[in-house]
Amino acid sequence: MALRRTLCVSMLVAARPAPAADDFIEGVYLQSEELCAQAKKDTLQTVIDAGNVVLSADGLQGVEYNCEFLQISKAHGATSWAVTAICQEPGYVFPDVLSVTQLSPKQIDLVSVRPADSEQAGNSGSYYHCEGVALP
Protein backbone atom coordinates (compact mmCIF):
# COMPACT_ATOMS: atom_id res chain seq x y z
CA MET A 1 0.00 0.00 0.00
CA ALA A 2 2.85 2.43 0.82
CA LEU A 3 4.40 1.79 -2.58
CA ARG A 4 1.10 2.65 -4.30
CA ARG A 5 0.81 5.96 -2.36
CA THR A 6 4.41 6.87 -3.17
CA LEU A 7 3.84 6.10 -6.84
CA CYS A 8 0.66 8.24 -6.93
CA VAL A 9 2.41 11.18 -5.24
CA SER A 10 5.37 10.83 -7.61
CA MET A 11 3.05 10.85 -10.61
CA LEU A 12 1.27 13.98 -9.33
CA VAL A 13 4.55 15.81 -8.83
CA ALA A 14 5.75 14.80 -12.31
CA ALA A 15 2.48 16.01 -13.89
CA ARG A 16 2.83 19.58 -12.57
CA PRO A 17 4.43 22.15 -14.87
CA ALA A 18 8.04 22.96 -14.10
CA PRO A 19 8.47 26.14 -12.05
CA ALA A 20 10.16 29.12 -13.67
CA ALA A 21 13.91 29.24 -13.31
CA ASP A 22 14.87 31.28 -10.24
CA ASP A 23 17.20 33.52 -12.23
CA PHE A 24 14.86 34.15 -15.17
CA ILE A 25 14.42 37.70 -16.43
CA GLU A 26 12.99 40.32 -14.09
CA GLY A 27 11.24 43.56 -14.85
CA VAL A 28 9.79 45.03 -18.01
CA TYR A 29 11.40 44.95 -21.46
CA LEU A 30 10.43 46.84 -24.62
CA GLN A 31 11.79 46.69 -28.16
CA SER A 32 13.94 49.82 -27.89
CA GLU A 33 15.49 52.10 -25.30
CA GLU A 34 13.41 54.95 -26.78
CA LEU A 35 10.22 53.04 -25.97
CA CYS A 36 11.49 52.57 -22.41
CA ALA A 37 12.02 56.33 -22.12
CA GLN A 38 8.52 56.93 -23.49
CA ALA A 39 7.02 54.45 -20.99
CA LYS A 40 8.77 56.31 -18.15
CA LYS A 41 7.58 59.69 -19.45
CA ASP A 42 4.00 58.64 -20.24
CA THR A 43 2.86 55.20 -19.07
CA LEU A 44 3.60 51.64 -20.12
CA GLN A 45 -0.06 51.24 -21.06
CA THR A 46 0.27 54.16 -23.50
CA VAL A 47 3.22 52.41 -25.19
CA ILE A 48 1.30 49.11 -25.37
CA ASP A 49 -1.81 50.86 -26.72
CA ALA A 50 0.36 52.31 -29.53
CA GLY A 51 0.91 48.74 -30.80
CA ASN A 52 4.12 47.76 -28.99
CA VAL A 53 4.79 44.45 -27.25
CA VAL A 54 6.13 44.21 -23.69
CA LEU A 55 8.22 41.29 -22.44
CA SER A 56 8.19 40.16 -18.81
CA ALA A 57 8.84 36.90 -16.96
CA ASP A 58 5.18 35.99 -17.58
CA GLY A 59 5.39 36.36 -21.36
CA LEU A 60 4.69 38.82 -24.17
CA GLN A 61 1.79 41.25 -24.02
CA GLY A 62 0.39 43.63 -26.62
CA VAL A 63 -2.93 44.98 -27.82
CA GLU A 64 -5.06 41.94 -28.73
CA TYR A 65 -1.93 39.74 -28.60
CA ASN A 66 -0.22 37.76 -25.86
CA CYS A 67 2.04 34.80 -25.25
CA GLU A 68 1.88 33.13 -21.87
CA PHE A 69 5.15 31.45 -20.85
CA LEU A 70 4.28 27.95 -19.62
CA GLN A 71 7.62 26.26 -18.99
CA ILE A 72 11.04 27.82 -18.54
CA SER A 73 14.25 25.77 -18.50
CA LYS A 74 17.70 27.27 -17.84
CA ALA A 75 20.62 26.32 -20.08
CA HIS A 76 23.71 25.05 -18.28
CA GLY A 77 26.38 26.72 -20.38
CA ALA A 78 24.89 30.14 -21.19
CA THR A 79 22.63 32.83 -19.82
CA SER A 80 19.79 31.41 -21.88
CA TRP A 81 16.47 29.73 -21.29
CA ALA A 82 14.21 27.53 -23.41
CA VAL A 83 10.59 28.66 -23.09
CA THR A 84 7.36 27.03 -24.21
CA ALA A 85 4.43 29.38 -24.70
CA ILE A 86 0.82 29.54 -25.80
CA CYS A 87 0.19 32.65 -27.89
CA GLN A 88 -3.09 34.14 -29.00
CA GLU A 89 -4.56 36.90 -31.03
CA PRO A 90 -8.20 37.36 -32.06
CA GLY A 91 -9.39 34.15 -33.67
CA TYR A 92 -6.06 32.32 -33.49
CA VAL A 93 -4.18 30.39 -30.78
CA PHE A 94 -0.81 28.77 -31.40
CA PRO A 95 2.10 27.22 -29.48
CA ASP A 96 5.61 28.61 -29.65
CA VAL A 97 9.04 27.60 -28.42
CA LEU A 98 11.57 30.37 -27.84
CA SER A 99 15.13 30.81 -26.73
CA VAL A 100 15.58 33.76 -24.38
CA THR A 101 19.20 34.92 -24.15
CA GLN A 102 20.54 37.70 -21.96
CA LEU A 103 23.11 39.50 -24.12
CA SER A 104 23.86 42.17 -21.51
CA PRO A 105 22.27 43.42 -18.28
CA LYS A 106 20.01 45.62 -20.43
CA GLN A 107 19.37 43.50 -23.55
CA ILE A 108 17.51 40.23 -24.10
CA ASP A 109 17.15 38.44 -27.45
CA LEU A 110 14.21 36.18 -28.23
CA VAL A 111 14.36 33.64 -31.05
CA SER A 112 11.18 31.80 -31.99
CA VAL A 113 10.92 28.51 -33.86
CA ARG A 114 8.11 30.10 -35.89
CA PRO A 115 9.29 31.42 -39.25
CA ALA A 116 9.33 35.22 -39.42
CA ASP A 117 7.44 35.18 -42.73
CA SER A 118 4.48 33.21 -41.36
CA GLU A 119 1.03 34.81 -41.55
CA GLN A 120 1.01 35.52 -37.82
CA ALA A 121 3.48 37.84 -36.13
CA GLY A 122 6.80 36.34 -35.09
CA ASN A 123 8.08 36.50 -31.53
CA SER A 124 11.77 36.95 -32.34
CA GLY A 125 13.58 40.19 -31.60
CA SER A 126 15.62 42.23 -29.15
CA TYR A 127 14.14 43.69 -25.98
CA TYR A 128 15.65 46.27 -23.62
CA HIS A 129 15.21 46.44 -19.84
CA CYS A 130 13.13 49.44 -18.79
CA GLU A 131 14.49 50.58 -15.44
CA GLY A 132 11.76 52.04 -13.23
CA VAL A 133 8.84 50.82 -15.39
CA ALA A 134 6.30 48.36 -13.96
CA LEU A 135 3.53 46.32 -15.53
CA PRO A 136 0.09 47.97 -15.42
Helix-strand layout with pairing:
Elements: H1 2-15, E1 29-30, H2 33-41, H3 44-49, E2 54-56, E3 59-62, E4 65-74, E5 80-89, E6 92-102, E7 107-112, E8 125-129
Antiparallel strand pairs: 1-8, 2-3, 3-4, 4-5, 5-6, 6-7, 7-8
What can you tell me about this protein's structure?
This protein is an alpha+beta fold. It contains three helices and eight strands. The protein has an eight-stranded antiparallel sheet with strand order 1-8-7-6-5-4-3-2, with helices on one face. β5 and β6 (about 90-100) form a beta hairpin. It is globular, with a radius of gyration of 17 Å. The model is unreliable at about 1-20 (pLDDT under 50). Keywords: Signal.
Distinctive features:
single chain; 136 residues; alpha+beta; eight-stranded antiparallel beta sheet; 3 helices; 8 strands; signal
Report a brief summary of the structure:
Keywords: Signal. The chain is an alpha+beta fold. The protein has three helices and eight strands.
List the secondary-structure elements in sequence, H or E.
Answer: HEHHEEEEEEE
Distance between the termini: 50 Å
Proportion of strand residues: 35-45%
Largest sheet: 8 strands, antiparallel
Structural class: alpha+beta
Seen as an oligomer or otherwise, the chain set is single chain
Radius of gyration, taken over Cα atoms and rounded to an integer in Å: 17 Å
3D shape: globular
Report the helical percentage.
10-25%
The average pLDDT is 84
- The low-confidence runs, each spanning 5 or more residues with pLDDT under 50, are 1-20
Number of extended strands? 8
Strands ordered across the widest β-sheet: 1-8-7-6-5-4-3-2
Tally of separate helices: 3
Signal peptide: 1-20
Keywords: Signal
